[in-house]
Amino acid sequence: MSEKVKIVTLGCEKNLVDSEIMSGLIDARGYSLVEREEDATVIIVNTCGFIDAAKEESVNTILDLAELKETGRLKALIVSGCLTQRYKQELMKEMPEIDGIVGTGDFHHINQIVDEALKGKRPVFVGNPVFNYEEKLPRKLTTASYTTYIKIAEGCDNNCTFCSIPIMRGKFRSRSMDSILAEAELLAGQGVKEISLIAQDSTNYGTDLYGEYKLAELLNKVSLVEGVHWVRLHYAYPGFFTDELIDEIANNPKVCKYIDMPLQHSEDAVLKRMRRPGRNRDIRELIARIRDRIPGVSLRTSLIVGFPGETEEEFAALCDFVREVKFDRLGVFTYSKEEDTPASRLPNQLDEDVKEWRANTLMEVQRQVAGETSRKYIGQVLDVLLEKYDGRSDVYVGRSQYDAPEIDGEVYVTRPGSEIGDIVKVRITHAYEYDLSGEGVL
Question: Which residues belong to any copy of the Radical SAM core domain (predicted)?
């Protein structure tokens, strides 16, 4: 009997890509991939372990799915991802529901792990993360057919004091440019129009393989792949943002005028404790340089509130920074005390209620900013990628180049004159806090 496998993905889009690779390998093995957990004989939970809330979600998901051994067809429950990389011994000891685990650098062995788990061996494949995906391995997309992600590197060497990613994902290692381009060609051949380049630290791409920053060259070469319409940049570490990269984004019509650049904070003392690159002045100068040379660029960032020792004055200054800089998109995280990180040993840890209040306050600041920044699009004609149809409102829903999938705003389109997956021209007539609406231009 052919096994039926369901992969449950938690966490970020980097985890999503790993799940798609496992799906491709499982499909090539001859097993069936199913949509419903209840139909599966094997379930793989690809976990996130980045912050406490993610760990809790991962553990609860594992326990919930384990009940299918009693009520469903489930024969083997396998756990992969960041949680297993960090807590392999604890998971195997304290959760007998688990039939096998695989770390972030070993998931390409998933078929062997499934086979051993079904035999009751409780396999553990968790080594030092050194694996880098090559396009020769199968990958089965789970995103919409017109948009997907390419991982250009794994791991991180920045060692921010709050972050456990180097523990879970290993040292920074770039994929070869040839491998990335070969994958881009494969994806474009399948109908993908939008490629988002992701890594833990995208702007450092190439330094380990080629001895120099190569992201600008990579953006250019991916944009030249036939069938690719948009190339989008995520996780741009601010310390490695070169003039060459800015110019490539500015001058290449296929590179989205969109930059996701996590800053984490604005105040010098906090940035120093975080071990982040540069200081307030450097950040402001970089943003000014980007906006001067890329007119209309959409800037997204993420910020952490409640970092150990963050004073009321520093938080107030962070709010002022957000008001002044006016990011187009912004995500806010409360500081999570991660064991084995330097920040977990810092004094003056803040109470959870203080952190939550600061997160809510900062998001309210951004809500007001977003309403202002969105209005600049009224009257403009934007290219919009149509993603779904809302029959109740009789409108199509899509995104412009200024918004990334899943995390950013949407554009509501009447009379598009096209189909889902098409890129159409839309005249923007209304702006809301995070979304836009307009009419298709025939």
Answer: 142-372
Delimiting residues of CATH 2.40.50.140 domain(s) in the chain = 378-440
Check: CB of residue 194 under 8 Å from CB of residue 230: yes
Kindly provide the residue ranges of all beta strands, DSSP E only, lying in 263-371, ordered along the sequence.
298-305, 329-334
Compute CA distances 365 → 236, 319, 359, whole Å.
24, 7, 10
Taking 80 as the threshold, does the pLDDT of residue 433 lie above it?
yes
| SS3 at position 340 | coil
Q: How confident is the model at residue 1 (pLDDT cuts 50, 70, 90)?
A: low
CB neighbours (10 Å) of residue 188? 17
Pair type for strands 381-390 and 395-400: antiparallel
CATH number of 147-376: 3.80.30.20
Q: What is the rounded CA–CA span in Å between residue 250 and residue 244? A: 10
Q: Does domain 4-125 have CATH number 3.40.50.12160?
A: yes
Residue ranges of the chain that CATH labels 3.80.30.20:
147-376
Secondary structure (H, E, C), 139-204: CCCCCCCCEEEEECEECCCCCCCCCCHHHHHCCCEECCHHHHHHHHHHHHHCCCCEEEEECCCHHH
Residues of the chain with CATH 3.40.50.12160: 4-125
Cα gap 391→154, rounded to integer Å: 41
Classify domain 378-440 by CATH number.
Answer: 2.40.50.140
Residues annotated in a binding site: 12, 48, 82, 156, 160, 163
The number of beta carbons lying within 10 Å of the beta carbon of residue 94 is 11
CA 235 to chain CA mean position, Å: 8
Evaluate whether 298 touches 329 at the Cβ level (below 8 Å).
Answer: yes
- Using CA atoms, how far apart are residues 157 and 162, in angstroms rounded to an integer? 13
For the annotated binding site for [4Fe-4S] cluster, the residues are 12, 48, 82, 156, 160, 163
Residues 42 and 115: their CA atoms lie apart, in Å, by 10
CA pair distance 442, 435, nearest whole angstrom: 22
Average pLDDT over residues 96-104: 93
Do 428 and 437 meet the contact criterion of CB atoms below 8 Å apart?
yes
Bridge partners, residue 32, by sequence: 4
pLDDT of residue 386: 95
